[in-house]
From TrEMBL:
One of its GO terms (biological process) is nucleobase-containing compound metabolic process. Coiled coil: none annotated. SUPFAM superfamilies: Ribonuclease H-like. The lineage of its organism: Eukaryota, Viridiplantae, Streptophyta, Embryophyta, Tracheophyta. GO terms for molecular function: 3'-5' exonuclease activity; nucleic acid binding. This is 3'-5' exonuclease domain-containing protein. Pfam families: DNA_pol_A_exo1.
Length: 555
C-alpha cells in the first residue's frame, strides 16, 4: 500500500466546488493486516505532504479515516481506534491533532454503523486507557480524555471493572473508581482547567462539589464552565449562578440563564432589570419597534419604554405606545419633559431653514431639480425602513433629502420610481452627476450602496461627481453626524427617529423635520467650517486645503 498524490475537491455549503487542492493520500483499501502504528505512520506521511492548509488537510484526512474504518480494521473499527489512541503519544506534536481527527471520524462512523461486540470490547480498553492516562503512563491532553470517555461511553462502573482487572502497584491503589476520578478532577481544578473538570463531573454524574466550586469558576472568569456545571447540578445551583451574574453586573448572562432555565418566578426583579437594560440599549440605537416587540406586551416594560421615548424626545412614539396599550398618566409628564428637550438638541429653525418641500409627482420633481441646479452646495441624505429579520434583504431606500441653504426637498423615491422612473432618472442624474454642484454627505458610501441596490435600473445612482463625505474630513469625531454637529455648531442632533418607519405615508411632522435636519446640517457645518475655521478650533488654512483634497471629482 503506497502513498499517492491526488487532487481533492472541497465543496461549499451549496455543493459547488469551492477549491481543488493537492494532497498525498493513502487508499487504506484493506486494513486487515495493518497495525495501528503503521496506520498512524501512513496518516502522518499523508499530512506531511501536499499543498493544503492545515484545516483543509484535517477535513480531507478525517474523510479518509472515516472510509478506512469500513475496510476491515482488526479486531473492529472502535477497538482499532482505541489502540491507535494508546500509541498516538509516540507521534509527539501530531498526537493531539490526530486524536481529534480519528475520534471525530469514529464518532461519525458509530452514528451510522455501530457493532455491539466491537464497541463493548473498545469500552473495556478505553477504560484501561483512562486509568493509564490518570496514572501518568500515557500522555494525552485533558480535552482528548473527555472525548475518549464520551465516544466510548466509559462510565464509573467501567472504570471500576478495569481497576479490578489490574494488578495495581502499591502506590496506585484507589479504594474505588469514584475516588480515583474525583482525585483526577481535583487536580484539574487546582490547575484551573475548569471546563474539563465540569465536563468530567457531568459525565460521571458526580455531584459532590458545592457552591464554592461555582464561585471559584466565576472568580476566574470561567462563566461558560460555571454554566455547564450549574446546568448539570440543577435548579438550586442555577439560581446561585444567576445571583453571581447579578453581583458581577453581568446582566445579559443573568437574563439568558433565567430565560433558558425558566427562572423568571425566582428572579422577577432581576428579570425585569435585565429586560429594561436590553430595552435601553435598543432605544439608544433607535430600534424602537424591536424594543416594543421585546416587551411581549408586559405593561411594566411598556411603561419603561414610554419613559425612554419621553427621555429621548420621541413624542409620537410616546403617543403611539400609550394609545396602543391604553397606558395612562404620561401626558402631563410628557408636557413637562418637552421644554427641557427643546434645548437639548439642534432644531431646524436654528439653521434658518424656511421650507421643507415633499416631492412625489412630476411637476414638483422638475421644480426641485431646477432649484437645486442653481445651488453651489447641497447636503444629501437617505432614509429607509429598518429590517429586523436576520439574514433578510434590506428594504428599499424610501426617501432622499437634498438641502440647499434655506430649502430642503424630500424626494419620495418609492412613488417617483413607480410612477415616472425615466424622469426621476434624468432629474437626479442632472444633480448627482453635475460637476458644478458640491454634494455633501456623511458616511455616504453606505447610502450609495443602498441606493444602487434599491434602484439598480436607474443610471443616476451609478455615478457621482463632486462629492464630499464629511466623515472623511473629520475622521476623529465620535458620535457620527450628531457628534460632528455638536463639535462644530455646539449642539447635537436627536437621532431617536432614524430607525422609524420611513415607508409610512404621510410621514409625521417629526419625521419630516428629522429627515430635513440631517441634510440641512451638512450645509451649515460646511459653511461654518469654511468661513470660521479659527473659531471652530482648526488651524489656519485647514479649510482651504484639507476639505478640498477630500472631494471626489468622479465616482
Amino acid at each position: 500500500m503506497g502513498i499517492e498524490e491526488g487532487v481533492v475537491e472541497l465543496h461549499d455549503d451549496k455543493g459547488k466546488i469551492d477549491k481543488k487542492l493537492t494532497i498525498s493520500v493513502h487508499t487504506f483499501s484493506d486494513l486487515t493486516y495493518t497495525s495501528p502504528v503503521v496506520f498512524l505512520y501512513l496518516l502522518k506521511e499523508c499530512y506531511a505532504h501536499g499543498t493544503c492548509k492545515a484545516t483543509n488537510k484535517f477535513r480531507i484526512l478525517q474523510q479518509k479515516v472515516y472510509h478506512a474504518l469500513e475496510n476491515s480494521p482488526q479486531p473492529g473499527p472502535a477497538t482499532f481506534v482505541v489502540w491507535c489512541l494508546y500509541v498516538l503519544p509516540i507521534f509527539g506534536l501530531h498526537c493531539e491533532g490526530f486524536s481529534h481527527l480519528i475520534i471525530s471520524a469514529l464518532r461519525r462512523f458509530l452514528n451510522l454503523a455501530p457493532t455491539l461486540e466491537d464497541t463493548s470490547k473498545a469500552k473495556v480498553i478505553a477504560a484501561r486507557l483512562f486509568l493509564d492516562i490518570v496514572g501518568g503512563l500515557v500522555d494525552h491532553d485533558e480535552r482528548i480524555v473527555v472525548k475518549i470517555l464520551e465516544v466510548f461511553d466509559v462510565k464509573l462502573a467501567d472504570v471500576d471493572e478495569a481497576l479490578c482487572q489490574l494488578n495495581v502497584q502499591d502506590d496506585y491503589k484507589p479504594d474505588t473508581a469514584k475516588t480515583l476520578v474525583e482525585d483526577y478532577i481535583f487536580k484539574l481544578i487546582d490547575s484551573q482547567s475548569y471546563m474539563t473538570a465540569a465536563s468530567l463531573l457531568e459525565h460521571f454524574s458526580i455531584r459532590q462539589s458545592g457552591k464554592s466550586f461555582l464561585v471559584k469558576m466565576m472568580q476566574n472568569k470561567q462563566s461558560r464552565a460555571a454554566e455547564k456545571w450549574a446546568t448539570f447540578m440543577g435548579k438550586s445551583m442555577l439560581c446561585a449562578l444567576v445571583q453571581e451574574y447579578v453581583d458581577q453586573n453581568m446582566l445579559k448572562q443573568a437574563y439568558e440563564t433565567i430565560k433558558k432555565n425558566d427562572l423568571k418566578q425566582e428572579f422577577p426583579d432581576v428579570y425585569h432589570k435585565c429586560k429594561e437594560s436590553l430595552l435601553k440599549k435598543l432605544a439608544e440605537k433607535a430600534l424602537w419597534d424591536l424594543a416594543e416587540a421585546k416587551t411581549h406586551g408586559d405593561k411594566q416594560l411598556l411603561e419603561y419604554l414610554v419613559y425612554l421615548a419621553m427621555e429621548a424626545g420621541y413624542s409620537e412614539k410616546v403617543d403611539e405606545l400609550c394609545e396602543r396599550y391604553s397606558l395612562e398618566g404620561f401626558l402631563n409628564v410628557k408636557e413637562s419633559e418637552g421644554s427641557v428637550l427643546q434645548s437639548k438638541y439642534l432644531h431646524l429653525d436654528e439653521l434658518a431653514v424656511e421650507n421643507i418641500i415633499w416631492v412625489d409627482e412630476v411637476d414638483g420633481l422638475c421644480a426641485a431639480t431646477s432649484h437645486i441646479e442653481g445651488c453651489k452646495v447641497v447636503g444629501l441624505d437617505c432614509e429607509w425602513k429598518p429590517n429586523y429579520v436576520k439574514g433578510s434583504k434590506p428594504n428599499k431606500v424610501s426617501i432622499m433629502q437634498i438641502a440647499s441653504d434655506k430649502t430642503v426637498f424630500i424626494f419620495d423615491l418609492i412613488k417617483l420610481f413607480e410612477d415616472i422612473p425615466d424622469i426621476l432618472d434624468n432629474c437626479l442624474s442632472r444633480i448627482l452627476q453635475s460637476p458644478r454642484i458640491l454634494k455633501l454627505g456623511y458616511n455616504f458610501q453606505c447610502d450609495i450602496k443602498q441606493l444602487a441596490h434599491s434602484y439598480g435600473e436607474l443610471r443616476c445612482f451609478n455615478n457621482y461627481e463632486k462629492l464630499l463625505d464629511m466623515q472623511n474630513v473629520f475622521k476623529e469625531t465620535r458620535g457620527g453626524l450628531s457628534g460632528l454637529a455638536e463639535k462644530i455648531l455646539g449642539t447635537g442632533l436627536n437621532k431617536t427617529r432614524r430607525n422609524s418607519n420611513w415607508e409610512l405615508r404621510p410621514l409625521s411632522h417629526n419625521q419630516l423635520e428629522y429627515a430635513a435636519l440631517d441634510a440641512a446640517v451638512l450645509v451649515h457645518i460646511f459653511h461654518h467650517f469654511h468661513n470660521h475655521s479659527q473659531s471652530a478650533g482648526f488651524p489656519d488654512g485647514h479649510d482651504k486645503i484639507e476639505w478640498k483634497s477630500h472631494i471626489v471629482r468622479k465616482l
